[in-house]
Each structure stands twice: as C-alpha cells, then as structure tokens.
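Appendix B, example 12.
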Amino acid sequence: MLGQVNASHMGLYRGENPKDTQETRTGLLGVEVAPTADGLKVTSVLDKSPAARDESRLQVGDVITQVNQQSVKSANFYQLLNGYANQRVLLDITRADQPTEVVLWPTTSLSDEKYDNWVETRRKLTEEYSNGRLGYLHIRGMNWTSFERFERELMAAGYGKDGIVIDVRYNGGGWTTDYLMAVLNVEQHAYTIPRGATDNLDEDQKKFRDKYPYSERLPLSAWTKPSIAMSNENSYSNAEIFAHAYKSLDIGKLVGRPTFGAVISTGAERLVDGSIIRMPFRGWWVKESDANMDFTPAQPDIEVFNPPAYKAKNVDPQLERAVEELLKTL
C-alpha cells in the first residue's frame, strides 16, 4: 500500500517490542588506529571523546597492546570493547617506548563529537581556501536547536568577513526553512544616522547609506552580506526546501550535488494493533517552476563531486568551489 502511494516519508512501525531481542553495545573510545608489530598505533584522537579527557588521555603515537589484559593481537579490537559501553576499560599502552596503563570509560555514540569535528574542519578549510575572507556555517537539521545554533553562530562566523558559506549537506530536514529565509533575505529599506555621528549632516549623509540597526529592529538576526549555499544527495526534506528557496529567491548560488528529492508533509496515525503508519497530508511545489519537490531534487547552479575519501584526505572540492565562486562576486 505504501508503495502504491509512491510518496517519500512513508513508513510503518511495528507496535510490539520483543523482549528476547539481544542488544549489545560496543564501547567507543574516539580513536583511529593502525596495526603495528606490537599492537595498534593511535593515529588520531577525536576531540571531546573518551580518549581526549584530561585525566585519561590517549595520544597520537601511543600503541595499544591490551584491553582488559587481553592482547589486541588475539582478537578484534572492537570485539574486546563489546559490552563495555559506559563501563571502565583498562588499556595497556606503550608511550614513547615506556609501558603504562590508561583507564577509559567508552561511550555508546560519537555522532556529536564526529559532527563537531567535521564542522570545525570545514571551517578551517574555508579559512584556508578564502585566505581568511569568508566565514562558514553548517546547519545540521531544520529544527529549533539547529536554528538557534545558526542564529547564535551567524555573527561570530561572519564577523569581519566579506561573505559566508552556508552548508546544508547531510541535513536530514525538519521545518525551519522560513526562519532561515527571514535571516538571509532581509532587504534594507532605509538608513539611519546616530546623533553625534557627524559634524556636518548635509555633507556626510550619504556616507551612512549602508547603516541600519538590524539588531534592534528585527525579531531574528540578519545577514545582509553576500552568501553561497551548499547541498548534496544527503540533503533531505526541509533542507531541500531551503535549497529550492535559496535559488528561487535569488539569494545566491547553490553548489554541490542535487538533493535527494523527497519533500512532503507527513503525519502519523496509530493503528489498532499498536503500530504506527506515516501518511502524507500536504505536497510541496516550487512556485517558480511548478515542479513537485517530492520527485524533483534541488539542482545546484554548479555541480561538484566529492571523492569518497575526501574527509580522510582533508580536502573538500565542493567547499573549495563554493568559496571560489563567492569570492568572484565580492
């Protein structure tokens, strides 16, 4: 039935909760390792992860030899951490040719830490690609938490910059596009001159044409300098509405890959057996082209592929091209 409806955001979720389903959680440390003759050498440590805490820190170059007194050579490293999420783990390591021990508390998830690391890396790359002229902001989801973070970081990321890159790649959607448009689509209709700002108002009046107290007059922060947006095939739902709107309202160019093409408003109903079914109640069309967003991805003005290992290689061709294009307009 769901297939016949042929719409995105569909789903059926069972009501029963089997008690006999086995749940195992592997403890995560926040390190990347490479095998050596003596054990596993730490090649990177994720910031804010269990391995990055001051009182029990692993360092790049450390060689892990045992987990809870079991050799990492005798079993898979993650097998030894299985079942140890949120429990103490004893690691035997060699640091600068000296054996020592470290006690860590592995976690169940590193998604937030990995996200923050990815964003900070994009921010540094933007600084590098633009020679410090552009700021960078990523919108993780179209929800109120992400919007508040966007509004809070907007002025910090753009302070002293000539423009800003707004990234909605890997954004799973939500509902806040119109709030973002209110921030990015502000048109100046007047200018103001504070008392005492000049000794000769008649001569200097036009020097203040770009001055307006946005922070006092608007309910949300506003960005009036140039910007450019980024999307990819993992931009979904409301993130796609954002990409369509950004182009339709001619705020700036869109760079990256076409979005997924799944935009529809969906609600949920509970059935008699306790299961939940998601069903659409409102469709979305682009006003400019009359295209159904549920079948029509937002097409970038400039399409750029990122290689599969772009993160490992510390490059981002999509971001680099976005920076290049925005710099051309300044």
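The CA atoms of residues 99 and 127 lie 40 Å apart. The domain at 31-104 is CATH 2.30.42.10 (Pdz3 Domain).
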